[in-house]
Amino acid sequence: MDNKKIWEEGREYSAPLPSFEHLKEISYDEPLLDVGCGHGRLIEHLKNLGYFNLYGVDFVFPPLRTLSLAKIALGRAEKLPFKSETFSFVSLVGVLSSILDDKKRKETFEEARRVLKKGGKLYIAAFAVNKYYKEKYRRGMKEFGKYGIFRSDSGGIFRHTTEEEIHYLLSGFEIKIFKRQPFTTMHGNRAEGFVALVKRI
Asked: What is the mean pLDDT of residues 18-34?
């Protein structure tokens, strides 16, 4: 099954969503942004937690279900269509694996920082370079010249991140929570990932 079909079906994956613990200092009426909102998995989760001032952005216009839950904009993670210091909370869940270019990956975090209010929180769940993908990384190294980029069995091209890179991308933030834990992909494969909660300084 190709990746477009998987996205259209809204297939789930286990990149963890933020909990009350991550959001406890943020009141229910403050503006929250989900970057790469897709079918609204995270937006629906935030709605269920009681938050109602919700925004989303995606480069593919999301389904009507998402539109009914939040204010949705068309745009890309590395160039967000919002004013500076707009949001109290920004999330990047599973987004980094779809951005291959080094410059655009850094710009994604710079943009998240730009649209956050001072003291605002950024939540990240990113797929990590892991032991389960060694053969795919090896083949990807030959094809793309960088370890961690690979072509999936369905033809999509993705990039996992190292701990060194994620710390580089988080420069300019104060790290509150950082951990590595098991993830599952949309294709049902075992993986690992980083979960972080950081604060805009």
From this structure: 94
